[in-house]
Design a protein that fits this description.
Mean pLDDT: 85
Distance between the termini: 17 Å
Number of helices: 14
Low-confidence stretches: 1-47
CATH superfamily: Alpha/Beta hydrolase fold, catalytic domain
CATH architecture: 3-Layer(aba) Sandwich
Length: 306
């Protein structure tokens, strides 16, 4: 599909789909910000899977370890636990006899105490996010070295990590699925996060939470919440249209929501950039942040893995 066609389809979708109501918007973004979305008592998803110790220590895995195809997952959040339950639910339609699925730790899931003990500085948050990208890189490189077809999938905060991975290592893997992310997060968003102030999108505007909304969801003064915001800022500040300019993104499928209250929708400049870097496919869903993962993960994987 050409990018002019893509703009047309967006216009048509927006005519027939209203934005999510403000209550739903707040619930979705609040859960993401405080890091409790789909938490569970995370344990190894499959203790029978044999991996090198350095890889096993930073992953959970399900499926067939002898399969040619490996899906490497970078979860949203940032949360303080690696969610095995959410991981297996997202990929419930993947044939696990033909695929090995690997859930990769992030800095704050590997060492929650480091994030919960004291408020992070912005520089510390940036360093933690780069460490998360390094963990992802290590796992991807391991499976590439095994001769596997590696598909890297990221959602929300995890999608920023995947984009950062493309900056760090280039398009080494077989394919990439980036869902509900931004190339250039508006400055007013990441700077607010860096100061511990939660904001959200309402249409194409960035708005603060009201005092009533904040109070209803427990306030924003805890160390954990401030650090969750700091981690979001620590990768959200990056200008990926500059960092990836001139890159060949033909292995990338990019999916976004037309009314994403958490990260906002892609703007025309971001869409044109993706077209100029020759991405494989641009997918849009007429919905919000959760609708992107619910509606596009299977379609995106089908495009990459056919």
């Amino acid at each position: 599909m050409g990018f002019n066609d893509h703009f047309y389809k967006i216009e048509q979708a927006m005519k027939i789909n209203s934005f999510l109501n403000s209550a739903s918007d707040f619930i979705s973004i609040s859960l993401m910000l405080i890091g409790i979305l789909f938490l569970d008592n995370a344990t190894a998803a499959n203790t029978d899977v044999k991996l090198p110790e350095d890889i096993a220590n930073i992953t959970q895995a399900v499926g067939n370890p002898d399969a040619d195809a490996v899906i490497v997952w970078s979860q949203g959040g940032p949360t303080l636990q690696l969610s095995a339950e959410r991981f297996t639910w997202i990929f419930r339609n993947v044939d696990q006899q033909k695929t090995f699925l690997v859930n990769v730790h992030q800095t704050q899931t590997r060492n929650p105490q480091r994030i919960s003990d004291k408020v992070l500085s912005f520089d510390e948050a940036k360093a933690a996010d780069d460490e998360s990208t390094a963990l992802l890189s290590k796992v991807v490189k391991h499976f590439i070295s095994q001769g596997k077809k590696v598909y890297v999938v990221g959602y929300s905060f995890g999608a920023f990590a995947v984009t950062n991975l493309l900056v760090k290592d280039g398009p080494e893997a077989t394919g990439y699925l980036i869902l509900a992310s931004r190339l250039d997060m508006p400055d007013e968003v990441w700077t607010a996060y860096a100061k511990g102030i939660p904001v959200r999108f309402s249409g194409d505007k960035v708005v603060p939470y009201t005092a009533e909304e904040i109070a209803r969801h427990g306030g924003i003064n805890s160390v954990g919440i401030k650090n969750t915001l700091a981690l979001a800022a620590g990768v959200g500040y990056k200008r990926f249209t500059q960092l990836l300019n001139g890159s060949n993104l033909s292995k990338v499928v990019y999916g976004y929501g037309l009314s994403d209250q958490a990260v906002g929708t892609l703007n025309p400049a971001e869409i044109r950039f993706l077209g100029a870097q020759k991405i494989k496919r641009l997918l849009a869903v007429a919905g919000g942040h959760d609708d992107v993962i619910n509606g596009l993960v299977d379609e995106g994987l089908a495009i990459l893995m056919k």
